[in-house]
Write a structure and sequence with these properties.
The chain is mostly helical. It has seven helices and four strands; from the N terminus they run E-E-H-H-H-H-H-H-E-E-H.
Length: 154
């Protein structure tokens, strides 16, 4: 008996000849024509995408040291790929690149963090990249909090 099924991702029609009960069981569970289609569907589907993001976040928090070590090792072993990634980012974000470069060249970080007023400022935070010299000096912790939305900074 020949059975037809449609791939959930690409809608390609799959055909399979069912010879026994085990084939039938496996075929009923099959939803994608290939592992590539399955992976694409998982990352395009918004519910699954959010679920995967949450799972990756939990895994990262539990294995942070190992993940950082692996990332540093990957960068060390793939310098040409990392350079290409950096080049592409700068090309796609020219205003950010310009603002950061101008601030780095012209403005020295001085004084305490403008948010907590406790630690020395280590970072420059741009509220608007179209104003490269409008900068707030913040410590590392407060800068992360600003970008993660934990601190509303106007």
């Amino acid at each position: 008996m020949i059975v037809r099924k449609e791939c959930k991702n690409c809608k390609k029609v799959m055909k399979k000849e069912i010879k026994n009960e085990l084939d039938s069981y496996r075929w009923n569970r099959k939803q994608f024509c290939s592992s590539k289609c399955r992976d694409k569907f998982r990352y395009v589907n918004p519910i699954l995408k959010q679920k995967n993001k949450e799972q990756r976040g939990k895994y990262y928090l539990l294995n942070k040291d190992r993940e950082l070590k692996n990332h540093k090792e990957w960068i060390k072993n793939n310098k040409d790929k990392q350079k290409e990634i950096d080049r592409r980012y700068r090309k796609n974000n020219p205003q950010k690149n310009y603002s950061r470069t101008m601030a780095r060249k012209k403005i020295v970080i001085e004084g305490l963090c403008k948010v907590c007023n406790k630690e020395l400022a280590q970072h420059r935070h741009h509220k608007d990249y179209f104003k490269p010299y409008d900068i707030t000096f913040v410590c590392r912790k407060c800068h992360n909090d600003i970008h993660k939305g934990r601190i509303k900074w106007d």
